[in-house]
């Protein structure tokens, strides 16, 4: 990895490589995530793959999850690749879109949301 890739977030580890992420890439995936929220609290991480701040927050959040013994159900949405799904989430849950953003859902309803440096595992497990 080059020096610039390290600074600007080149092709380093992606959420695909983290075993705890469940991807949202279709309306069917989103429906399944919402259905899952009736069994366990879930969180959707909306990430802009072209934003350095979003990448930094994502990496910090991943470290928190990896270092925790708390079981969590976390979903990952690449909002640049799936802008319509991101817009649907914002409209359906009446939560203003931000990036990066973590939306916590329980029983089909948002119970918490955070963006930027406010994103942490504590939003899910508290």
UniProtKB/TrEMBL annotation:
<protein>
    <submittedName>
        <fullName>Bacillithiol system redox-active protein YtxJ</fullName>
    </submittedName>
</protein>
<dbReference type="Pfam" id="PF11009">
    <property type="entry name" value="BrxC"/>
</dbReference>
<dbReference type="InterPro" id="IPR022551">
    <property type="entry name" value="BrxC"/>
</dbReference>
<dbReference type="InterPro" id="IPR036249">
    <property type="entry name" value="Thioredoxin-like_sf"/>
</dbReference>
């Amino acid at each position: 990895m080059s020096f610039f890739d390290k600074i600007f977030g080149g092709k380093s580890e992606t959420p695909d490589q983290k075993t705890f992420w469940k991807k949202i890439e279709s309306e069917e995936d989103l429906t399944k995530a919402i259905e899952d929220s009736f069994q366990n609290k879930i969180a959707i991480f909306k990430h802009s793959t072209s934003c350095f701040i979003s990448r930094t927050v994502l990496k910090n959040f991943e470290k928190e999850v990896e270092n925790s013994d708390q079981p969590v159900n976390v979903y990952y949405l690449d909002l640049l690749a799936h802008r319509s799904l991101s817009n649907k989430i914002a409209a359906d849950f009446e939560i203003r879109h931000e990036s990066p953003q973590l939306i916590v859902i329980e029983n089909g309803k948002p119970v918490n949301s955070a963006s930027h440096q406010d994103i942490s595992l504590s939003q899910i497990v508290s």
